[in-house]
UniProtKB/TrEMBL annotation:
InterPro entries: Adhesion_dom_fimbrial, Adhesion_dom_fimbrial_sf, Adhesion_dom_sf, Bact_Fimbrial_Adh_Pro
Keyword field: Signal
Signal sequence bounds: 1-17
Higher taxonomy: Bacteria, Pseudomonadati, Pseudomonadota, Gammaproteobacteria, Pseudomonadales
UniProt protein name: Fimbrial protein
Pfam families per the UniProt record, alphabetical: Fimbrial (PF00419)
GO biological process terms held by the UniProt record: cell adhesion involved in single-species biofilm formation
Coiled-coil segments on the chain, per record: none
Fimbrial-type adhesion domain segment(s): 23-155
GO cellular component terms, semicolon-separated: pilus
Amino acid sequence: MNYVLLVLAVLSATVHAADTVNITISGTLTRPPCTMSTASSLTASFGDVQIDKIDETETKTLPIQLRCPAGSSLNVSFAVSEGTHSATIAKTNVANLGVSMLWANNDSTANLQGTAKSFTNLSGSVDMSMKAKLIKLGDLSPGRFTSALVMTINYL
């Protein structure tokens, strides 16, 4: 019995004051982004277009395909290198010739002045294809035309 008391006395003599540390674990769970399954650089080549046939020129489709996890959301916006004639008509390097971008699924015009369009609840294969359409805004002279746009897809 004395031996037990001695062991207890030794063990209790080695106990010191204790400090505590509070630990917080935090983070944000996010969905993985969609992945592009088409090229990140596309060209709409109209070839030779007669000035008097601009309004009859067919649109050029730009295929943009994504693969998205279930429940994905994203915003799509455009920036234009030459500036714009209006919210939906980009300038080209030729006076009085513009280009509009249409959503291929419904032919509605895209805002080309940075206002984003939102897409929600996406899943699997997602078609974000666009169509380029030439717009005659006045008298034109023969010559080469170009315009450049950047489509930005922000994953939410």
